[in-house]
Automatic annotation (TrEMBL):
PANTHER family recorded: AMINO ACID ABC TRANSPORTER ATP-BINDING PROTEIN, CONSERVED COMPONENT OF ABC TRANSPORTER FOR NATURAL AMINO ACIDS-RELATED
Keyword ATP-binding attributed: yes
Protein name according to UniProt: ABC transporter ATP-binding protein
Pfam families: ABC_tran, BCA_ABC_TP_C
Length: 292
């Protein structure tokens, strides 16, 4: 088997007396879809924050395609094309949909960049003011690409492309965030509860979009509480509780693992407003493991 694209080893993060992530290993192969599940407070978001450079780990290492990317800053992570969305949604409210997504293209700009040592910032400023044809052409190409990415979301975002994102619905702001992550041409796409706060039909629509991204062969890491979605999308699932990995395997192996059931039953809810029992309904005896 080939080497994984992304490997995290021995990840530890402590907050005061709490060990939020306790010696966790994770790997994902190119084109693989790995989901991380676990009850509230299990350490899932903290783990993703560490892998994607939003937070610094106390111990451990992360490699991307063999290159050490441990504790790189978020902008360096973006240069490595590690793209993520956030559990609570983060968009620039005063910027339009177009400009929010264009930000995702930033690391790919070439024409407006200068590689001349020392004076680069001055040259870049000058180019931004004068806007030579090469800069205008590059920007237009990126705008065209952003329009294509936004079209992925059907008619949800296209009619709103020039509106500031503060005027959008919550679900649309989450879509903008995913569009921005896609604009980075991610090598790894990291999604933290992309359907949190969405109703059933919005969730189904998002699941279709994420399914299409998977079908394109993208490498995806997903945190999600909606287990039916996890079961249908994932190649592999990892379950966490109290900062530790408690189970790992195929979706149905993990769902039926007594340690996972016990971890969930210890919580009245497993995220959002889903009662734990509802999410852990016995799985139908199908080979696909689908449980709709
Ligand atoms: N910045 C922080 N400071 C202190 N404690 C934190 C911080 N971030 C997370 N924690 C704690 O670390 C633990 C893991 O939190 P985390 O947000 O990673 O869980 P989670 O699995 O993503 O949960 P949820 O499903 O509710 O999103 C929790 O006990 C949380 O309170
Ligand atoms: Mg979380």
């Amino acid at each position: 088997m080939t080497e994984p694209l992304l490997t995290a080893k021995g990840i530890v993060r402590r907050f005061g007396g709490i060990t939020a992530v306790d010696n966790v290993d994770l790997h994902v192969h190119e084109g693989e879809f790995l989901s991380v599940i676990g009850p509230n407070g299990a350490g899932k978001t903290t783990l993703f924050n560490l892998i994607s450079g939003q937070d610094r780990m106390d111990a451990g290492s992360v490699t991307l395609d063999g290159e050490d990317i441990t504790n790189l800053t978020p902008h360096k992570m973006a240069e490595k094309r590690m793209a993520r969305t956030f559990q609570h949604g983060r968009v620039f409210g005063n910027l339009t949909v177009m400009d929010n997504v264009l930000i995702g293209c930033h690391t790919r700009l070439n024409a407006s960049r200068s590689r001349v040592p020392v004076v680069s910032p001055a040259i870049e400023l000058l180019k931004a003011l004068i806007r030579p044809k090469s800069v205008r052409d590059e920007e237009e190409a990126m705008r065209a690409e952003v329009r294509e990415i936004i079209a992925t979301f059907g008619e949800r975002l296209t009619p709103r492309i020039d509106q500031p994102t503060y005027s959008l619905s919550y679900a649309n702001r989450r879509r903008v965030e995913i569009a921005r992550a896609l604009a980075l041409h991610p090598r790894v796409l990291i999604l933290d509860e992309p359907t949190a706060g969405m109703n059933e039909s919005e969730t189904a629509e998002m699941q279709r979009i994420i399914g299409d991204l998977k079908a394109q062969g993208r490498t995806i890491l997903l945190i999600e509480h909606k287990l039916n979605m996890v079961m249908q999308l994932s190649d592999r699932v990892m379950a966490m509780d109290n900062g530790k990995v408690i189970s790992e395997g195929t979706p149905s192996q993990v769902r039926n693992d007594p340690k996972v059931i016990e971890a969930y039953l210890g919580h009245s809810t497993i995220g959002g407003d889903q009662p734990a029992e509802a999410e852990l309904m016995p799985e139908p005896m199908t080979a696909a493991g689908g449980a709709e």
